[in-house]
Amino acid sequence: MAATIVCAGGREKAPNWVKRRDKTKIYLYSAHETWKEAKAVRYLTASNAKFAEHVLASHRENCHECSFPSVRECGNRDSDGDSQRRGNTSDELTAATIQSKSEERDSEDTLSAIESDSSDGESDVHSELNYSAGRGNPHVSIEEAVFDVQDTGTDDYSNDELTVDDIDDDMNVIEQQKCIAFVPCIVDLLKKSNGNICNRKDCKEALAYKTAFIGTAVIVTWTCHAGHPVGSWQSQPRVHDMFAGNLQIAACILLSGNSFAKIKLMFQFANIANISQTTFYRMQNLYLAPTIDHFWKTLQAELLSAYQGEKALLSGDGRNDSPGHSSQYLSYNVGDPEKKVIVHTEVVDVREVNGKSPNMERLGFERSMDQLQKNIVIDEMVTDAHSQIAAVMKKCDKFKGVKHSWDLWHGGKNIHKKVVKASQNKKCRDLLPWASTIRNHFWYSAKESKGSERKMKAIWFGILHHVVNEHEWLLNIDGTYGKCAHSPLTEENQQRPWLQKGSPAHVALKGIVEDKRFLRTFSYYVNFRHSGFVESFHSHLLMYAQRDMRTRLKSNTLSSPRGFILLPN
Questions:
Q1: Are strands 217-224 and 125-126 parallel, antiparallel or unpaired?
Q2: Is residue 7 in a domain?
Q3: Can you give the residue range of the structural domain that contains 542?
Q4: How many angstroms separate the CA atoms of 196 and 143, rounded?
Q5: 330 in helix, strand or coil?
Q6: Residue-wise over 201-234: b if at least 16 C-beta within 10 A, else e?
Q7: What would the pLDDT profile of 358-396 be if each residue is shown by its tens digit?
Q8: Which of 300, 336, 284, 282 is nearest to 568 (CA)?
Q9: How far apart are CA 232 and CA 241, in angstroms?
Q10: What pTM was estimated for this model as a whole?
Q11: Strand ranges in 407-448 using DSSP code E only, listed in sequence order
């Protein structure tokens, strides 16, 4: 229920929107009867303000039965007080109340003072077109430009649903070339084209050119002092009753991964008109996010249909909306490293796992697998070394036919960390130069194993001989002859000091290499897989939503101060 404001005297005070609406009303006065006759002749049922005035003027020129009062005359009658207004109630009619930003809509919409509620001065209604011209050229103070303390953008949006077909019909608007134009230059050009004197018969009044801003668009109207509407010009075409530039600037900010606050500040420094932040986010909700969501769902259906009759190798990884273990949401993305495509994305709220953020990745993995197995046959799934995911893959019957592999890069990274940590001991400092070599040898062992866990272990244990300058030994654990695969080494190409066999450094390395818990994970590495493609996709997402910004779940999207990240169900 709307609140009612009561003055001190007990009289109800009209809300501000009522005052702004009353300023835009058109009073026909004695022309009321003529207007009713014109509507009847032309079978008019609506009261579009602009069309009404043109029809009325045309009818008056034909019949000459009455005269239409000018804007000045209307203003004089309004200033005579309430008594005179009450005396003329039988002759007065409000033709239309302006409630939107357009001068050419099919309904009762024209530019109104409501649009310019953030303008620097009072909006005065001029001519029968009723444009709000109080904004003028946007003025930006130093405080506004630097501290961004005031939102001076104007709004231009529609609540009507915008379909993909509507955008396709107006695709040429996107392809048209744009430029930055100065408003005084535009007005000067229009003055040269239309002159400074009213061209109506028996009217030689001077023309007044006025400008109004709707977001990034400028509308120039010119009327004579007698109140005759002469003409108007707008700087942008319209798409679905909306200025194309306003919709396109919102789309470009979103799709380029920019921040509206920074773009707005740039526009303010350049003194360029712009849409407001409210309009930017409303355009996201109404048009941009649904369009991107529709595109993604269509693309996803095409991608999944391409897997018919073949087994898929997929990799998955989770991405938190903030670093550390305090994230609110996690998006689990699954991609095909061979085809280089993302096939599915799942969103998990920390409240779904009782506030335990480490459990979100496991839930996101399960949901993704359940959804994908409805459409494709998954032969192998690559993830990071997440213990909960590994347990789910072992215990759940629905995943028994899926080979589970771990990201090899993370495995090598963990080996490198262990070697560096062991080298912190004074007696093991000679181990530090070998850290990168040991990590690379782990990758090499997985690559050469060809799917055999026993062969991978045999190659892996060879590093214990290599670091002590032993390149041939009796037997490997798989029964093969022990020998390094590299070419003969010389003192010139050996850059690391050899370790002494049985030294503290060598013993520490042996403990890392022969760790039984680590050796049991070799079955996850023998296929030499990694999830680098999905992690590269996550790096690309940082362009649209930084991890140090709090994101919020909205429908099937994650949104941040930069914009939306589409995360379809």
A1: unpaired
A2: no
A3: 306-407+536-566
A4: 38
A5: strand
A6: eeeebebebbbbbbbbbbbbbbbbebbbbbebbb
A7: 899 999 999 999 999 998 999 999 999 999 999 999 999
A8: 300
A9: 17
A10: 0.62
A11: none
Q: Do 60 and 39 have their domain in common?
A: yes
Clarify whether residues 461 and 358 are in a common domain: no
**Which helix or strand (DSSP H or E) is residue 506 part of?**
helix 504-513
Please indicate, yes or no, whether residues 262 and 126 belong to a single structural domain of this protein: yes
Residues 255 and 120 in one domain: yes
For residue 293, is it within any domain? no
Helix (H) or strand (E) holding 415: helix 408-422
Do 378 and 479 belong together in one domain? no
Task: Say yes or no: 319 and 380 in one domain.
Answer: yes
Q: Among 82, 97, 112, identify where a domain stops.
A: 97
Q: Which residue shows structure tokens 């949006």? A: 157
CB 193, CB 156: distance < 8 Å: no
Judgement on whether residues 341 and 389 belong to the same structural domain of the protein = yes
* For the chain, the helix, strand and coil percentages under 3-state DSSP, each to the nearest 5: 45, 15, 40
Cα separation, 348 vs 345, whole angstroms: 10
Phi/psi for 183 (5° steps) reads: -60, -45
Note the pLDDT tens digit of each residue in 47-89.
555 556 666 666 566 554 443 343 333 333 333 433 333 333 3
Q: Which residue type does 9 have?
A: G
